[in-house]
Structure formats: C-alpha cells, structure tokens
Amino acid sequence: VAMTQPLTTPSPVNAGAPSRSGVLVTVGAGITAIAMAVYQVATPGAPSADFDSVLDWAREALFLTYLVTSMAAITVARRAGLAPRAAYLLITVGYGAIAAGVIAGMIARDDPAWFFVVGGPGNLAAAIGFVIFAVHLRRRVGFPLWGAVLCGVGGLLAVLMSELGTSVLIGAFWLFLAGRLGNLAGESDPTR
Q: Each residue of 30-65: b (16+ CB within 10 Å) or e?
C-alpha cells in the first residue's frame, strides 16, 4: 500500500474520519517521542529523579507529554477504526499508570516508592497493546509491513530502552499514522 493511497475499509468501530485536531495530536505524539530520543542520546546515562536542574524537569515533562499524547493518539486511532479495543485499553491503561507515577514523582520531587508497582505492569500492558495494534494494522487495515513493525517494535522499546533513543521508532510510527489519518480526514472533508 503506497503512502498516498487511503487505508482499506476501517473496522466497524469507525465513528468517522479523524478531525484535524486528532491528526495534530498524533503528530504531537510523534514529535514528542523523537524529541525524547534526541534528549536521551544527547544526555547519556540512566535518568535520575533528583530534580536539581532544568534538564531533570525537562526530561520528566517531555516523558509525561509523550505518555499523554500517545494515549490521545491511540484514542484518535480507535475512533477512526484503526485500533482494536484491546490495544486501545492496554496502551491507555498502561501509559496512564506510568503517567500517574511520573506526576507523583514530579510533585514529590522524587520517584515514589510504589512506582515499580504501577510502572512495570503499565509498561508491559502498553508494550503488549502496541504489538496487538501492529498486528491489527497489518492484518486488518492493510498497513505496510514496515509501518506495523515500527508500531510493534517501537511501542515495545519506547519506554523500556528509552536511554538508547529507541523512542525514535514509535515517533516515526506516530508521524506515519498521522499522515494516514490526515488522508482519511481529507477524504471526508466536503470542501475538498
């Protein structure tokens, strides 16, 4: 399937074509993930929760923004009929749990002792959700193989190995998906 061709018929969940704001949210998820990768590569080493510098706050804010925009982007994909319910639930619940821990850490200016209780399972749930999403995109939606691989592998490694800049993979996926969502939004625009 060429990048300029529209997606095949979306699943029955489709509540209509995505809005322009939905496309922009998905672009935001991609840009934030790539920015997170650049930050991690530019500042090597494991992150610490010291909050002693602007960079510490920037890292946490960037990570939180990635989590929130990714939850919004999977919601847009679900509403457009591109994401199955299981993937949507696993990603939003998983990233929501991680985001709760990040917010608590930012408020307390230290990682909460309970974070491992929600962070590990949250990351696992989201990783499984991205794999389900990737398989669905390839088998049911006719997504190109490389796009589905970006989704599955990128989603699996986005948080798990972020110190190595792996979030660039999921960032590239979100940007590609935004382009495809933009095509769907343009097709439904009566002014075109």
A: bbbbbbbbebbeeeeeebebebeeeebeebbebbbb
Q: Whole-angstrom Cα distance, residue 13 to residue 72?
A: 17
Alpha-carbon distance 184 to 192, whole Å?
A: 12
Q: What is the DSSP letter of 155?
A: H
Residue 74 near residue 88 (C-beta atoms within 8 A): yes
Out of 87-91, 115-119, 159-163, pick the least confident.
159-163
pLDDT tens per residue across span 96-125: 999 999 999 888 888 788 888 998 999 999
- CA 176 – CA 29 distance, rounded (Å): 11
Cα 17 to Cα 184: distance, rounded to the nearest angstrom: 6
Token couple for 100? 């709760």
H or E, element range at 180: helix 167-187
φ, ψ for residue 28, nearest 5 deg? -60, -40
What pLDDT digit, counting tens, does each position of 165-185 carry? 789 999 999 999 999 898 877
Spell out a b/e string for 72-96, using b for 16 or more CB atoms within 10 Å of the CB, else e: bbbbbbbbbbbbbeebbbbbbebbb
Closest CA to 118 of 92, 91, 99: 99
